[in-house]
Automatic annotation (TrEMBL):
Top-rank taxon: Eukaryota
Family per similarity comment: Belongs to the enoyl-CoA hydratase/isomerase family.
GO term, biological process aspect, one: fatty acid beta-oxidation
Pfam families: ECH_1 (PF00378)
Record's keyword annotation contains Transcription: no
Name of the gene encoding the protein in the UniProt record: DCI1_0
GO molecular function: isomerase activity
PROSITE patterns listed in its UniProt record: ENOYL_COA_HYDRATASE (PS00166)
Organism of origin: Vitis vinifera
Pathway the protein acts in: Lipid metabolism; fatty acid beta-oxidation
Record's keyword terms, sorted: Fatty acid metabolism, Isomerase, Lipid metabolism
Protein's name according to its UniProt entry: Delta(3,5)-Delta(2,4)-dienoyl-CoA isomerase, peroxisomal
Length: 253
């Protein structure tokens, strides 16, 4: 078995054709680092090419499945946006977003069925991962949250595209409506108003455009969208606010 920094491959029984691919950063609640995005496609490919593997179960070591993307990845994106040449900066950002997307899309390219076993937190990029899987099982303590907008980002690694494809537009809208029923309308409005205006606008635009696009087309669209929107200072402000445990302050549109 190959050794990885962020993953662990386990065969529970020598005769079993079911292999476990575990996210393996339990001390950080399996936050997804840049190493993960490099290693994950390689690990999947090795299992895909192994004739002894029939099924892959993807789960997380420790108390949670995945707490989302590592803030260091967001720092790297923010650093890439600091340049006076906005055109070339945008092109570099787009390539970086496609690199992150391709790592998750590797699940769909794998010939073997990939089953997600979800427990505890499944947040942000964790949802990107499980929506790309073929089957999803959850424990009773599993909970989910799309957190990208809290970090001033329009979710761009697959959630907005694959969640609609998995649930369908009506089921997705129903889920949003049910959440709204438990939240006072004014409070919900204030919550949205506190987010990055660029991230909120981008999320709406990508969701609406995605109704007419395939998953691949939708991923390409949001990569292009964010290559422009991430040139703003909102991401850096959101990350700083998270680290400093304060409310972010964003410029108006």
């Amino acid at each position: 078995m190959e050794n990885y920094k962020t993953l662990e491959i386990v065969q529970r029984s020598p005769k079993s054709s079911v292999f476990h691919l575990n996210l393996n950063r339990p001390s950080l609640r399996n936050a997804l680092s840049l190493d993960f995005f490099s290693e994950f496609p390689k690990a999947l490919d090795s299992l895909d090419q192994n004739p002894n593997v029939s099924v892959i179960i993807l789960s997380g070591n420790g108390a949670h499945f995945c707490s989302g993307i590592d803030l260091k990845v967001l720092d790297s994106i923010s650093e890439r946006s600091q340049s006076s040449d906005r055109g070339r900066t945008g092109e570099r950002l787009r390539r970086h977003i496609k690199f992150l997307q391709d790592a998750i899309t590797a699940i769909e390219h794998c010939r073997k069925p990939v089953i997600a076993g979800i427990h505890g937190a499944c947040i942000g990029a964790g949802i990107d991962v499980v929506t790309a899987c073929d089957i999803r099982f959850c424990t009773e303590d599993a909970f989910f949250s799309v957190k990208e907008v809290d970090l001033a980002i329009t979710a761009d690694v697959g959630t907005l595209q694959r969640l609609r494809a998995s649930l369908g537009t009506e089921a997705m809208d129903e889920g949003i409506r049910l959440v709204a029923e438990g939240t006072p309308i004014d409070a919900g409005g204030v919550g949205i108003a506190a987010k990055s205006p660029l991230a909120v606008t981008g999320t709406k635009a990508v969701l609406l455009r995605g109704r007419d696009l395939t998953v691949d087309q939708g991923l390409d669209y949001v990569a292009t969208w964010n290559s422009g929107m991430l040139l703003s200072g909102d991401l850096a402000e959101a990350v700083s606010a998270q680290i400093q445990k304060r409310k972010p302050v964003f410029a108006k549109l």
